[in-house]
Amino acid sequence: MQTARIALLEDDPVQVEILGSWLRAAGHDVHTFTRSRDLMREAVRESYDLLLIDWELPDLPGSDVLRWLRTERALNTPVIFVTARQDENDIVTALAAGADDYIVKPARRMELLTRIEAVLRRSRPPADQPLIDASPYQFDLNSHTARLNGEVIDLTEREFELAVFLFRNVGRLVSRGHLLESLWGRKGDVPTRTVDTHMSRVRSKLALRPENGYRLASTYNYGYRLERVADDGKRAEEQPAA
Fold first, then answer.
1. pLDDT of residue 238 exceeding 90
2. What's the order of all strands across the beta sheet hosting 145-148?
3. What is the pLDDT of residue 231?
4. Full set of structural domains in the chain with CATH
C-alpha cells in the first residue's frame, strides 16, 4: 500500500479518533481539521496527497470546501467524501464538483483503506515501480542509481530520495512541510532550510535546466515544483538573442 500525507476534515471527535487511528496504522501521515476554514487556511501554505472531507461541518459544508479547492485554488489533489449523506443526488453533486470518491458512514476500515489506495494509484505512479524513466533522466530504485543521458550522477541517499520524490510528482507544487514529513519523517527538529539546501544540490547535480527537459521552480514561502519543459520551450531557450 502506498503511504500518503492525508488531511482529514471531520468535526466529530469520535470519527476523528477512529479514522485517524486506521490511517496511521496503515502508515499514513494524518493532519486533522475540525473546521472547514482551518483546512482552507492550511491548504494555502501546505500540500497533501489526499483529502478526506465530511459534508456536514460547523462553518462551511464540505461541498463548498471542495469547490474552493477546485476553483479558487485550482488544486487537483484527490478528494474523498466520508459522510452520512447517502442520497443519490448528494453523491452525484459531490462527484460532479470534483470529488474522486464517496464513502457513506459508518465507514468500514478495509473499504476506506482500499478506496484510498485506489485513488492514490490513479493520481500518481506506483511506489513499487523499480525504474523511473523520464528521459534524459533515469532512476533505478533497486540500485539507488541516478543517470542523466546514461551517465551516473553521484547523489547521496537523501538526494536520491528527494529526486525520486520530485519525478514522481512532476508538475505538482509541494510544500516544504510535505517534503520534510515525507523524506525526513515527523522530526520537529529539522529546519525547513534543510529542504532548500538539498533542493539546491539536487538541482545542480541533476542539471535541472530547460535544455534537459525539466526545470525546478520554487514558490516563495511555500515549496517547489518540478516542471516538464515542452520541446518548443526548450528550443526557445536555446535560440540566441537577436
1. no
2. 131-134, 137-140, 145-148, 151-153
3. 58
4. 5-123 (3.40.50.2300), 131-238 (1.10.10.10)
